[in-house]
Amino acid sequence: MNAPVKVFVPGDSSAVSIGADEVARAFPEQHAGVPINIVRTGSRGLFWLETLVEIATPAGRVAYGPVQAREVPGLLAAGLLQGADHPKRLGNIEEHAWLKSQQRLTGARLGIVDPRNIVDYIAHGGFAGLDAALAKAPEEIVRAVTDSGLRGRGGAAFPTGVKWQTVHDQKATQKYIACNADEGDSGTFSDRMLMEGDPFALIEGMTIAGVAVGATQGYIYLRVEYPYAARTLMAAIQTARSLGYLGDDIRGSGKRFDIAVRLGAGAYICGEETSMLESLEGRRGEVRVRPPLPAIKGLFGQPTVVNNVVTLATVPVILAQGAAYYRDFGVGKSRGTIPLQLAGNVKRGGLVERAFGLTVNELVNDYGGGTLTGRPVRAVQIGGPLGAYLPPSQFDTPLDYEALAAKNALLGHGGVVVFDDSVDMARMARYALEFCAIESCGKCTPCRIGSARGVELVDRILASRNGSRDADLALLDELCDTMFNGSLCGLGGMTPFPVRSALKHFRSDFERHGSNHLTDGAASAAQRSGA
Amino acid sequence: MTIEVAEVHRCVASAVERLGAQPGPLLEILHAVQDELGCVPADAVPLIAAALNLSRAEVHGVISFYHHFRHEVPGRTVVQVCRAEACQSVNGNVLADAVRRKLGIDFGETRADGKVTLEAVYCLGNCACAPSMMVNGNLKGRVDPDNIDELAAGWGVSG
Asked: Most buried of A318, A475, B62, B122 (most Cβ within 10 A)?
């Protein structure tokens, strides 16, 4: 009997959505006397090459892609298990320019390890950060995070170490680590990839946070739209607990920390930290007025670290490699790496983790290869539904916090959605306001009422043929001003970014419609009535 | 389709017993009830309220706040179509209209024959393989609106 050959097939939900499960099932138990051992990994993040199959050969991993299930028999016959030549053979995927040019720190193990196998995690450097942290005093852990320059990757970019220091300094019998896994921004999927592809990194990061600030309980607030991530996370937590990486005596240190997963229920606003805390407490996800800050009075009224998945999953590498190692990546006040997510109408979409400083042009055109449709790029939206639209004339902007802020834009959670020249930017502005109206928690008036009035205003602008349009455009700008300045949180406060940027850079889209312009809802109603 | 009152009682009691001792358990209990019954029926509201020492208004307020919770049992297949920007950038609106037209229902509705419930969702995290939908919890990417007949046949809807 020959030794079994390992075949790596992603189990990442994006890969599964385009056939990875069928590919995995298409492999027989053995081929020509060689047993096949299928290992389901996360995704490397080169989604245009999914399903990306890798074979463990004596000379290293050899990749093939994109593979469809019906191609598997032919690939096997061509000698796939030996890494033989084939039109779909990509060789060592880590030498592929798209991946080789990246700096994978947070996503170092994505697509490589079996996400449910803790031994695999440890073999690839896992828990080195926790071991380093347990050898330090809590203050030293916090200092390492502060010195690394890490800022919140959920979108607010608040210095993580400063937040941890605040929680550390509070006197309380109970403190919490609340991980925000409510990744609701369109165009983002780095949290999902990490939870599905390397869940132990998040568990390790949360444990380090707990040890640093004196919290014994962690919650992962996971959006219900991510059932694949939920299954992987829960399995990983169970494994970590059974082996003493979570529980009453972490790694024999005498320190206690445990994690529970709590599912959201389809409310975008619950990605806002105070709304998330309300939801975790079992209430309507209405935004809290700050102060008090969650770091002082957070979950169940106790001091709470609220961090995003990427932020927490980055902590282990900082502790393992040192603050200086991480800080040496990046530019200006944007230190370290940022997992950018390239999405939408783009030829080569996926995960691009790079040191801060990459320009929009490099991301969209060099990595992305332009649009999927082959038409010219007309706009990108950066940072989710509350992020600004940028025209190609601004694509020389570096993707860092300060450079984007200078352009009235924001990096947010690092999602970049590409649109070709068929996009109607007035319609996108209308959608931004409509989305805000659908998802508003209703607590403050500028968001709750402003968004609804905004949708009506855009409809009126698009329907008008005469001089009232200019007055309505001015009114829309005023409404944006009120929402920006008067809203309690970022939902109402940042919806003006996509609206105003669309108005500024694509004003002609607001001026070319006639009175017979059909809005989305009107069009579908017409279609349903057979019109 | 209605759910027997006794069934609602049993389901709520079981969820409260398993989850009620946790801090802030309401969402967890609502999830457990919906996972089992397909929805959170009106009969469950006073039972949950009494068990958690909340008012019925508070429980109703939480249920109605979250898009995920339903008041009625859904169709055999729940189709959730992503309506967010990344999907829109690759003809997501065309897909959404094709699904609506094919099923003869709008978002938030269930077909009269009980075969399909159609829901709008805002991002499934599949934005590099858009447009996307989730069918009974299974993610589908790069969905081609031209394949709507084949897709619908899989949901038991033809013609």
From this structure: A318
